[in-house]
Write a structure and sequence with these properties.
The chain is mainly alpha-helical. The chain has three domains: about 60 residues, no CATH class; about 60 residues; about 100 residues, no CATH class. The protein is about 65% helix and about 5% strand. The protein is built from eleven helices and six strands. Strands 1-2 form a two-stranded parallel ribbon. It has a two-stranded antiparallel ribbon with strand order 3-6. Helix 1 links the parallel strand 1 and strand 2.
Length: about 270
């Protein structure tokens, strides 16, 4: 299938996306790092606009990257809000760390004021995200499915919707790999190393950590998986990673089947 293949370029590609999508043209947005590695694999080390265009065309023809959703505007708006939220969370962590080392009463007051301001701004961003999701019937239905899973909060649900819009369209292996939760084997000749997770979308992985901890206690199926792994000698961290993987696979399956989570009959 024909498609327009391009790399994201900060704020500049958004207007391009809106225009092309409005005209019904199929779009594929590729990770610049992967495109660069593809170029290096073909022996192209030089980098010019003309060379990049040719390589992106070859990348699209050979690998057929996923087509972008037709409605990119609402996703762009959600993504912009979420990027701002992540920056606020980072600022909040920094302000909390600073508070431990401040001795000046004035600086303590300024830091406390900044923390309160950040909390207000985070709340406002969260409300804006929920308003956008509530205005779109498709997104709202997907959001309701995700929050039906024990341990998945509103914040986790909208993070998954924003940072992994492919959920519901992938198979189990692909969704685990895309979230960076698929174990990567290391083997050469007779040597076999320890498998570990690598790559994927770190934001999605971080968003799944706390839900996995909650699921280990309150989701019967995932709790059984965690207990089984720890009983066989697996480290708690490895068991939690496995629960995170099962959690994203479960979310993908529920969205694909358009149904909410229900407990298995006893």
């Amino acid at each position: 299938m024909e498609r327009i293949v391009y790399e994201p370029t900060g704020p500049y590609h958004k207007a391009f996306e809106r225009f092309m999508a409005a005209n019904g043209l199929p779009l594929s947005k590729v990770n610049p790092r992967l495109a660069r590695r593809f170029a290096e694999a073909t022996g192209k080390l030089a980098k010019t606009d003309r060379i990049d265009a040719g390589l992106l065309a070859r990348y699209g023809a050979l690998l057929e990257p996923r087509l972008l959703q037709t409605d990119t505007q609402i996703h762009n708006d959600l993504k912009e809000l979420h990027v701002a939220r992540l920056a606020l969370i980072k600022d909040r962590t920094a302000a909390k760390n600073r508070s431990k080392n401040l001795s000046s009463p004035l600086l303590k007051k300024h830091n406390a004021d900044r923390l309160r301001q950040i909390e207000r701004q985070v709340k406002a961003v969260d409300e804006a995200i929920m308003v956008l999701i509530g205005q779109d019937a498709f997104l709202k239905a997907r959001f309701d499915i995700l929050v039906s899973i024990p341990g998945v909060s509103q914040i986790t649900a909208f993070t998954l919707l924003i940072e992994m819009p492919e959920l519901g369209e992938l198979d189990e292996k692909a969704v685990a790999a895309l979230s960076g939760l698929a174990p990567m084997s290391r083997q050469s000749g007779r040597w076999t190393g320890r498998a570990s997770i690598a790559g994927g979308r770190a934001i999605v992985r971080q968003a799944l950590y706390m839900p996995a901890l909650v699921a280990c206690r309150f989701n019967p199926d995932l709790k059984a998986k965690y207990d089984q792994l720890t009983a066989t000698g697996k480290a708690p961290k490895v068991a939690i990673t496995a629960v995170m993987r099962k959690l994203i696979v479960l979310a993908n399956a529920l969205l694909r089947n358009n149904r909410k989570w229900t407990p298995k009959p006893a």
